[in-house]
Design a protein that fits this description.
The protein has an 8-stranded mixed beta sheet with strand order 2-3-4-1-5-8-7-6. It is α+β, with helices and mostly antiparallel strands. The chain contains 3 helices and 8 strands. A hairpin with a 2-residue loop joins strand 3 and strand 4. The two termini are 20 Å apart. It has one domain: 2,3-Dihydroxybiphenyl 1,2-Dioxygenase, domain 1, CATH 3.10.180.10. It is globular. The structure holds (S)-Methylmalonyl-Coenzyme A. The site of (S)-Methylmalonyl-Coenzyme A has 25 residues, from strand 3, strand 4, helix 2, strand 5 and strand 7.
């Protein structure tokens, strides 16, 4: 099995400060990590949902750092909402090699830097029925 868990659901928001309190109030979630990822053009907050045997699961809130970034363009087109789903994998290099072999359109052919030191890669939404999909090889303990 290529996938080990749902790592996170990425949600595009206009403002982290305006959205984090909703998740705190509704579900008692707390922000366990916050980071700016300049290459991806996002300021992100990770809210822990569950610590499982196969790793953790999060809600990831994404605020754009620039209008011409993926999340900035998404917000302009659709407004706030679910931006992508991210699955955990044990070994992202072999996961990408397997997807390449069967002809899937990868946004990232090799892994790039993700949240909290993770290695990530995106599969194009057109390849998976309109869902932007991320693979995450997390650092142990995340
Ligand atoms: C765009 N499209 C989407 C979409 N974004 N479809 C579903 N979900 C999304 N999130 C669709 C558009 O509607 C359009 O469809 C087509 O893809 C091209 O979109 P575009 O707006 O013209 O944009 P492009 O082509 O410049 O870029 C699309 C692409 C990009 C997916 C390649 O957004 C990308 O590279 N995404 C991966 C990186 C990313 O999303 N980074 C932010 C999260 P039509 O039908 O109109 O052709 S970073 C993150 O999450 C990290 C930090 C982490 O988890 O650790």
């Amino acid at each position: 099995m290529l996938l080990s868990r749902i790592d996170h659901v990425g949600i595009a928001v206009a403002s982290l400060a305006g959205t984090i309190p909703l998740y705190e109030e509704a579900f008692g979630l707390t922000v366990v990590h916050q980071e700016d990822n300049d290459r991806q053009g996002v300021r992100e907050a990770m809210l822990l949902v569950n610590n499982g045997e196969a790793g953790s699961s999060y809600v990831q809130l994404l605020e754009p750092l620039r209008e011409d970034s993926p999340v900035g363009k998404f917000l302009a087109k659709w407004g706030p909402g679910i931006h992508h789903i991210a699955y955990g994998v044990a070994d992202i290099d072999s996961a990408l090699a397997a997807l390449t072999t069967i002809g899937f359109d990868l946004v990232n052919k090799t892994p790039v830097h993700g949240t909290a030191g993770s290695r990530i890669a995106f599969v194009h939404p057109k390849a998976l029925g309109g869902v932007l999909t991320e693979l995450v090889e997390a650092v142990e303990g995340h």
